Amino acid sequence: MPMPPPHPSLAERRATGKALRDRLHRADQGNWAPPGDRPDLIPRLQAANARRRPDLLPLKWGRMSASPFAFFRGSSALMAGDIAPGPVTGITVQMCGDAHLLNLGTYAAPDGHLVFDLNDFDESMPGPWEWDLKRLCASVVLGGREAGQSDADGRDAVRALVRAYREGLDRFAELKGLELVRFEVTPQAGGGVLKEVLAKATRDTPDKLLAKATEDDGQGGRRFRLHPPLVQPLTPAELEDLLGGLPDYRETVLPGRRQVLDDYAPVDAAFKVLGTGSIGTTCLLLLCLGRDLEDPLFLKLKSEEPSVWAQYLPNVEPASHQGRRVALGQHRMQTWVDPFLGWTRFGGQDFLVRQWSDHKAAVDLATLQGADLIDYAALCGGILAKAHARTGDPVMLTGYLGDAEKLDEALADFAKAYADQATRDHERFREAIQSGMLQAITGL
Predict the structure, then answer these.
(1) pTM
(2) Does the pLDDT of residue 441 top 90, yes or no?
(3) What are the structural domain ranges in the chain?
(4) Closest Cα partner for 140 from 85, 83, 68?
């Protein structure tokens, strides 16, 4: 059998990327304005959430109403529809799909040391690198505003983010494949901006979670502490479905991890409302105990729907299992992955399975003042570059991006324009709540 043809040389790949500037000038990446016939956002939001639990949507609307940034977090489908029709270079990466400032954070690697990385992949799929980068940039302006920073500060932070993205890709393009796959960022590398994140992650242990989230069941065991509507018990049928899905989940983790799982027995489960964008999906918590009551393993099972970007990428083969799609995106983009990450299907839904709250922590937007906003944005840009370099062609990307600041300035323009649109959308959204068009529950 003949050997496959060799890869194009580094110079050829870089030249191919540079030639893409003729298709889409870097300065033109900043061109965005809402079309005159942009549909009203309320029907778009309702359509995007049509498969969610209707009894929980008021909770989602309530959390989204808190601020333009909160609205942005919960409306990724709107942004997908707004920017997907625009031109792209055609360079494909594994997208996070919902890259924003709070979807990066700290968690424990399999050996226990803490790393900082992307940590939300519900919308992940192969697609244009621009979509991830633009969503992350827009979140910087909105997050900066929420922290009380000026748009001038936000612009500086976006430019720092894009510069870090360019320089990161340039650095990763020089690494060998095995060097790139092992590249990690620890919280300590983030300096002062991640000091509090590191402290929170260090405190977030299974033992602490056991004390916080569970209580004595009156029979010498533990059960989840209920707090309706945020934490609710399962019906017997729901519990039976969940337990029935565990054998299939077990087969999706590595054999060595199955051996560990077999040492734990499920003792209680509950329905949990988490986050903002995920509200309305089925999110189940499972408490498993090992040798005794002080040996807990918490698993989170979250139902997954098709990515909001899927309808705009008709040439990408549809995922046969949405939980598997999310898990594979996480494997591809993260340096270190939750050892119990897997997937299953039950009750007519696809589920992603992962540990719940194992040394996980994210930045507090209110702390992003002055230079910290710029430093954190740059850190996030470097992390996204690492993920895209692992899953795309960093040499070709570097050829397109170049050394000049044209893309930095362009995406600073885009981020401001889209943040303004999200702010107007938030105002329209609050009007819909005040008029009774949407029902919202706040304070939970």
Answers:
(1) 0.95
(2) yes
(3) 10-37+66-97+121-191+366-435, 205-355
(4) 68
